[in-house]
UniProtKB/TrEMBL annotation, chains A, B, C, D:
The keyword Manganese does not apply. NADP(+) binds at residue 46. GO terms for cellular component: cytosol. Belongs to the chorismate synthase family. This is Chorismate synthase. It comes from Candidatus Methanoplasma termitum. The gene is aroC. GO terms for molecular function: chorismate synthase activity; FMN binding. It is an enzyme of class 4 (lyase). Its EC number is 4.2.3.5. FMN binds at residues 281, 296-300, 323. It catalyses: 5-O-(1-carboxyvinyl)-3-phosphoshikimate = chorismate + phosphate.
Length: 355, 355, 355, 355
């Protein structure tokens, strides 16, 4: 399903090697100012960082086909697209016989007869370029309501940031190529990536996302709970393997007397701790919403791997040549922000009149 | 949102202290045999275990209002309900002034003017009784396709099962009150619960769910990915704070050469490891689907807690008296199974003709 | 499907002879005043008129279970129900063998094994009592935006009102038992109904609905066009067999130079005629939205009819005894208004920020 | 909304003067043979007939980007597009000031600031080229279930076919440029169009659609009723102003004893008449499903028309030059068939397991 949201509706299209990757964004209010510079900044955050990212270069210039006029939303669906420049699929032919471990190749080839591996097809992380454009517009939409979303790299490989972080840290992290919160951590994480890269290997990590400004009660119930909707959207990002809110899995080792966040009064209701990550009963409790997403190591690695040959039905080897990110975590940071902005924008519109 | 699924559509209704809790299940094929004994068995698994669960007793007898005839589905929507017997809300009045930490009280009271706390209202874990009935029917539906879903307790508090487990282990776990995989672990986990209980406290834990029989390629793409849909449904269960597939957060510390599951050939494609939890690109890769869900400690505890008095706008104390589960993990096991069955059943119907 | 709308979401439940008929209405903004008197007035318009309606009496008292506090919406879903008092199904048993022509009996019995005819089951016009409650709340919601919906009886049998009518006429029609626009027409239509009734027969008619205050451009595109959404909701009303906007089928005999509504300027854009019924390209053109709905004669008639005996698989006769409306058109008037209010309310919320 | 259906999901994209018009069709089962010749035949039926259609020529060659392999569906979404060759919008500039009566120009210009009239933009009948491609695939899908959909021209202007027609008549109608059921009617209707054309005017008409093979009980309930879903999809076709099932508006003048279709037994249940158009309670009653759609005269006419000048805010005149269809009814026939096939295909998949 390429659609996210019910009232601010985002539709994704394109494939890794298609002529274009694009999207529709419906529901952005007429007259809202849309800052193209902001979109370009967000897109720049998705680009590979020098040294630790893929040397593959895509200009990623967004073309708007409808919905924008003189820098403002017209109320029509916003249709945009980005031209793909790297669309040569010939070097991927081999994977039609010997699917890449860790990729969607095997299920796609078995599920869809005649499927041809072209980059990552519709499963490619390349499609997140469309997510970031829509997310950046959603970010501008929710900012009008005083809501801000920021993410940073909590860990790469065995280097883990042990400090509690704030929204301001997420802003600062954007100056660091790894999106770590500090220069020191950036340098350590950078080394972790370069070491993996030197071994033709890859490494994973954790992105943490902090949202401020959600009014108490913001969110839905049951299958429309705010955390449930966000988890769905974050798991849709390629390579995501886990999502936890607040202290998440750690909470399972705590006592209720430790995990419950006590309330106190100081110019309004406040919480002494934020173990719950700002969510109670699927709704905001007024504390910043905090969640973490686990990203696996990039599956494309230069090392030889065991696979099978679908033609001869026997064991085989495969090497994934070419220019791949040894770690996608730094680039995933803005993508996690983007889907979060989209979910919140949709929910704002759903709740709009209820406030 | 009280609705899950698009083609096998489950709608939940009721509140903690409403006359009835019930549900609609649409899309179950005409003529399918529905085993009421199976439903009652699943409901029994949701009941509190002697010693470690709440002494509150609800008979939980399901009444079917439509959709069933002579033990078979008629093709009409299946409408069922369970009578609530404990519906006295008087002892909850105090929480309208002094909301319970860890509960939905605070956001609900602030979001909905005039909201009256009655048990857990629509946010109550009590509503999972409806989820289990629908899930049990979905379980019978997916069994026809050779798909089986089983869950067990991976950890409670600091007691963690360190073994790799199989679907068979999940079956055996049902003989143990804590749903641990072995008697030894059950005894250790049991003690963990009793200790918390003795201190008027509570404890959390991790449920692990294993699904066998999914055909390679089963699942959707992007926002309809199988893992994304399951994460959404699992996060909808009250008290869930995290979901991870395969080795989940641990993957972030691995190298790609370790985390990628290599393929080999032996009467079909196989995987040497299952680090991905059976999911590649949002689809089944043929290995069992494995995920874990983190449940926080029960927020209702007998210990005095800090809260605020919404009337006087000042700090206050609250004690949650009454009979509550010191640990909801054992009861959550069948609920996790149930939502998983529902998501898979919906997806089967979506994919039905595509097979 | 028992659900209408995406952002103001109405869910219908119940059956002709169930304990309750009810509904959920989600999305009504917190704090909106809800006038119960207005709801009761709308329900009264749905009741059979003395003389020309069924003598079956239902008190139709609405009980609100959630979402209302001190006459205001709380922002929670509004859950309400109406107790059925006539739930004796015994006299319907015969129709399980000899289905009633013009009713859903035959398809329901063949589609759903074990289906038992109880009144009209889920297909019954009785369920429109729930539609009217939700519609009445939606009516109050859209009134805040200056939008008013009124309907009246355009024709019964061969008596047809040939005048062009306005919203004010629809208000006046409510004083007439047949909902005709004038006393004279009321008297003629009344006779038409009584004549059919005297012959143990029934008669159909046309309801016309006029909506004022829609801003130019209100509505969606393609499958979300305003006329398309309204047509769907109106066809969902039992016994509706046709819907036309503006001059509808008559337009097919006109020339473009006659049918196009010319624009002119007088304190804003205006239209000289309203052949299009206020809709261009699926959106409001600023003229009142006008459509008509055709209702077939009540299928329940006292006359003997040809049917089949499903048990003996042979021809049979059936007589539908009891107290039925010889004409449902007067009661359908407020139901047509109700679904129109619901569709517009949903669309307002979708467009809210786009204005 | 550019999406139709829930399980066979059709998404429309493009604009009158965009580079491409296209669509996605999701849910077509893997391995289903797709006959491109059939699609081209259906597209040819949408092309203007010599003499009575617009001389504007579009080659309408379909390019498939995904979902097809060796003439079979792969199970992936079917993505296709058609290149627009006429995309010069310069002659439409004038309509930004003086909107065309009968078109979406006025509401679009007022609703969407900065909107530029380019042909019919997203409201254009040109987009039905995408509908026909998807509909043709849906037609092939439903044919596997023995269901066939055919439409023909019931009337153009004042020439009306008074005979009862069958599915076979709809097949024969395709040999006639006007899609009339007989040569005689074709010649009369043809004259009606040419007369309007000679006067720089246009004319409307009625399309009738007949569907055979629907099993008894096929369809949904309430807002998902088969007739409701079809009405929605047909009203989405540009220029449609009315939809009626069976004898439709005529039923309102009948008595129940005349309108109810009596059942009889002859190798199964049969109906003596088909006044209901094959629909009872939103479901098929086993008789052919018959409905009619009213199409207004083409709004583009060469005659001078009254409009307003949006810049000077005063009355103005407009002449719509260029090559337009004096009657779109013949071309609408296959479009009505197409949306009907799409709705039925979606419903088949929803009901599939329930049979």
């Amino acid at each position: 399903m390429y659609k996210l949201g019910d009232s601010i509706v985002y539709t994704l299209y394109g494939e890794s090697h298609a002529e274009y990757i694009g999207g529709y964004l419906e529901g952005i209010p007429k007259g809202m100012k849309i800052d193209i510079e902001q979109i370009n900044k967000d897109l720049a955050l998705r680009k590979p960082s020098a040294g630790i990212g893929t040397p593959r270069k895509e200009p990623d210039e967004v073309e708007f086909l409808s919905g924008l006029d003189n820098g403002k939303a017209t109320g029509e669906k916003i249709h945009y697209r980005i031209k793909n420049t790297n669309t040569d699929s010939s070097k991927y032919d081999i994977f039609n016989r010997t699917p890449r471990p860790g990729h969607a190749d095997l299920p796609a080839l078995i599920k869809f007869p005649g499927h041809k591996i072209k980059g990552g097809n519709q499963f490619s992380g390349r499609l997140t370029v469309s997510v970031v454009v829509a997310g950046s517009i959603a970010r501008q939409f929710i900012a009008q309501y005083g809501i801000n979303v920021g993410a940073f790299t909590r860990s790469i490989g065995n280097v883990r940031d042990e400090e509690e972080r704030t929204f301001e840290d997420t802003v600062r992290s954007k100056d660091n190529p790894t999106r770590a919160a500090t220069k020191e951590l950036d340098s350590l994480m950078n080394r972790e990536v370069l070491e993996a890269s030197a071994e033709e290997d890859s490494v994973g990590g954790v992105v943490e996302c902090i949202t401020t400004g959600l009014p108490i009660g913001f969110g839905g119930t049951w299958f429309g709970s705010l955390d449930a909707e966000i988890a769905r959207a974050v798991f849709a990002i390629p390579a995501c393997k886990g999502v936890e809110f607040g202290r998440g899995f750690e909470l399972t080792k705590m006592k209720g007397s430790e995990s419950n966040d006590p309330f106190y009064y100081e110019n309004g209701v406040r919480l002494r701790t934020n173990n719950m990550g700002g969510i109670l009963g699927g709704m905001s409790d007024g504390a910043p919403m905090v969640f973490r997403a686990a990203f696996k190591p990039t599956p494309s690695i230069g090392k030889e791997q065991d696979t099978i040959d679908l033609k001869t039905k026997s064991d085989a080897k495969v090497v994934v040549k070419g220019r791949h990110d040894p770690c996608i975590v730094p680039r995933a940071v803005v993508v996690v922000e983007s889907v979060t902005c989209l979910v919140i924008a949709d929910e704002i519109k759903k709740e709009k009149l209820a406030k």
